[in-house]
Amino acid sequence: MIDRRTFGKVIGVGAAGTAAASLIGLSGPAAAASSSSGLGAAETGTPPRTPHTGGGSFPELKQVRAGELNIGYAEAGPADGPVVILLHGWPYDIHSYVDVAPLLAAQGYRVIVPYLRGHGTTTFLSSTTFRNAQQSVIAYDIIALMDALKIKKAVFGGFDWGARTADIIAALWPKRCKALVSVTGYLITNREKNKLPLPPAAEWAWWYQYYFATERGALGFEQYRHDFAKLIWHNVSPTWNFDDATFDRTAAAFNNEDYVPIVIHNYRWRLGLAQGDPRYDGIEARLAAAPGIAVPTITLDGELDPFTPAGDGAAYRDKFTGPYDHRALKGIGHNVPQEAPEAFARAVLDVDRF
To answer: Tens of pLDDT along 246-270?
Structure first.
């Protein structure tokens, strides 16, 4: 999920975003560029925790050959609108954005939500390709997707694996990234720092990472992949009252034959227990230096996310050198876009106006 660091609960909370009605009040990206944010003194109270049902869905998925992959993706909004690319995490899929995408599409954005490698309808073009999941190769997948769709530049939003991928693109390919919404801030992995132990409570939150380091864990994950994901959902989003239909809609994405190899390689690579592809050594060296991100950025933290660092964004503030805002979402856990879609969409609209 995210880089290892000193974790804790958010001490203070900031703006939690506004309701969907305020999004409808905007008249699209062009008008938004000249209007005020509309946030003002936003509500910071815990949002209503009504059951989240799995009724929403994307239109028919599209497929495109891009780099090593045939990438499956959902698309919403006008084909000629400014592009927003939304990237999911693990153990999630594109449906983390099923309520965000229509809000942005209604404002005139072309919204692209791809399945990451190993998930859903995204497949490898060759059976002999190394099932590599190091951080840089996933970023290259998204650059290849943009090239295949002839997208020169986009606003990026992401959480978990998706936030890391968006951070990498913003840091290394800023000409392709107009602006950034990053949940849990700066997530670019430094494998040398990952060798350092954390306090026991923080290590406990990463229990599955060590399980995956064993062959027993790999076998267990293969056998219980759906039960495993549901347990993670409950643990990292303790107040998110999702129903079985919501979970099952996403869990279908875990039936990809490359899902387990990709997930296992990702977590083993982070701990230095698996090698990446030498072709990406140069990029990984640049990422290990923790490059700054200069594009306009809004970072979001879920108050109840066990991976949210203490200090209301202070742990990563100096990594963002351009126009910047931080928002802590009270009563929200790890899956921010699905737990708080209005706040996430509000952040995308706002950062595009910075």
So the answer is: 999 999 999 999 999 999 999 999 9
Q: Spell out the residues 6+ positions from residue 175 whose beta carbon is closer than 8 angstroms to its own.
A: 153
Q: Are 91 and 260 in contact (CB under 8 A)?
A: no
What's the mean pLDDT in 161-180? 98
Check: CB of residue 308 under 8 Å from CB of residue 9.
Answer: yes
Rounded Cα gap, residues 19 and 47, in angstroms = 10
- Write down the number of H helices and E strands in the chain: 14, 9
**DSSP per residue, 14-35:** ------HHHHHTS--HHHHTTS
Judge contact between 349 and 17, C-beta under 8 A.
no
Amino acid (1-letter code) at residue 41: A
Residue 12 has pLDDT above 50, yes or no: no
Which stretches does DSSP call E strand in the chain? 62-66, 69-76, 83-87, 110-114, 123-124, 154-158, 177-183, 297-302, 324-329
Q: What gap in Å lies between CA 308 and CA 304, rounded to an integer? A: 8
| Residue 72 backbone dihedrals phi, psi, to 5 degrees | -90, 140
Distance from C-alpha of 187 to C-alpha of 201, rounded to nearest angstrom? 20
